[in-house]
Structure of Putative Agenet domain, plant type:
Amino acid sequence: MEANVVFHVGDRIDAYDLDGWWVDKILSKENGSGHQSVFFETTGQELDYPVLKLRVHQDWRNGKWVSSKKTKRNDVLFWASDCSDLVS
């Protein structure tokens, strides 16, 4: 939805799905096919998602979308530490 935006691992983003915007986070770099790995907080799913359906996170205030002050996620390391038992 935003042209030429580069997302980075840990960025807080919104993904357009099912007629609405969902707050998510980027888990990996763009994979060359126009998709990025996105963690959907509401469902706990990790999906490759089309970059064209992603935007920098925004908040709904007073009837309009405004830039959010929270663009980076601090819990990426926490998420990674949850997977530490998968690494031998």
Q: What stands out?
A: The beta strands are 12-17, 20-26, 35-40, 45-50, 54-56, 58-61, 64-67.
